[in-house]
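Hi P.,

Sorry for the delay on this. The queue was packed all week, but I finally got your sequence through. Input first:
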Amino acid sequence: MDYAFSTSVIRLAENALLEQGTPLMEQASFALASHILCLLKERGFRLSGSTVLVLAGTGNNGGDALFAGSYLARRGLKVSAVVGDKCHEEGLHAALRAGVSVTHNPNEQELRSLARDCGTWIDGILGIGVTGKIREPFSNWLSILNQESAQSAAKPLIVAVDIPSGINADSSEVCNDVLKADLTVTMGCLKPALLEYPAADFAGSVETVDLGFDPILFQNASASSDVVLRVNDIDVRDNWLVPTSEDHKYSRGVLGIFTGSQQYPGAGILSVGGASRLGLGMVRYLGGNTKVVDTYPEVVIGNGKIQAALAGSGLVELEPVESWLNELDPALPVVLDAGAISLALDPNWQKPTILTPHAGELQKLLDDSGFGIDRTSIEANPRKFACIAAEHTCCIVVLKGASTVIAAPSGECYVQADAPAWTGTAGSGDVLAGIIGAVVAMFQARAEQSGENVLSKDLALAAAIGVHIHGRAASFASRRELHDQRGLGIPIAASDIIDSVPNIMDEILNPWR
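Then the structure:
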């Protein structure tokens, strides 16, 4: 599990370690310089004579950048730095002693000239404490640097210190002139903005420098809002229901699916396809596309014992599915997608439920609840509004997007950004709903073996695991996993994600191969 912590908790950790005499800046700057050297080598650049521009603001990020510049200069790189009226004095003196060429308060022409002359930029302008409008001269610096980066025939390699300048570390909101990084070297722990779009789109690859924060962070993260979670392959493997010789189809999880219609028959096929590749004991299909069994002959048509329910994808009439859901055990977990999401607004609805809206569907859900939120606001700060919806509906909300937010009513929040942009295609959400439904059925089957029902916190984890598998499968299908950040991948269809699930599960469950 990956953990990202709020700025307030990070400050507590920093202060505690500084009081103990821990040389945080020395450790951070050395790690920053080391990562830059490794990146240059990976890209095939000679170290001696390589040109570096340090962009130093007034805070500790600027100090980290200046100290890192001094390390790089002593390794034979040609390092220049720009600073404003104020900067980190010790970092400045270290840079000057190492032979770094420092320009104070550069005018536009000076900054443009330095930017053009240097192949690597170290962005230490702003840090995690910045919110709201960026003040001068840094706003102007960022505007100029973005222009130069866009116009350059040989795009500079941009490395952000801790977080790209102009990003709100806690909310993931971005200003107009954020400098997009190729690499972000973040100090001590992940920040929520590095997991969540739109901010994460500016971070590039992210490397975390261990500064000994963890014990203090976990001790002080008293509220769920202080932590954002991200599942990985290890979490999937640790929580997977691997069958034994004593298992049978009913002990491995049975999912009932009510999706698809004559108008939208593909939704039934795609949701069943997503569910069928994860090792369930059985999939029961009750939807409006009876040809589902032609594609998946192992599917059982009709009602019967199930351990979770999925409904909504491709439905036109809600009354039949609502009647079916009302007949189920009230403790049975339910996944509601597309048009069925609105069922959760019924004041009598009390089932343990996962909702899977995209931004437009979440806006409608909140509008119907009297919140009056526009879609643009949701897309600018998805985690905020997913958490609002989860608290209001008492359901787990899976807000689909470039980064998918999984918010629980109790405050736990996961953010998964595993999928490439190629995933935004018709039917992808139907596949995701099927995958989540399958994971939930397995979780419920395991809970029933102990005479219990799956807990809300476990439902949130199940949803996050489903999103992770879906994203990994989409990356595999688009061939993004064969390329680094510069690779484009290839277009995919939703059915390609289904076909890639077995390959991804093989990688996850058998990592030693």
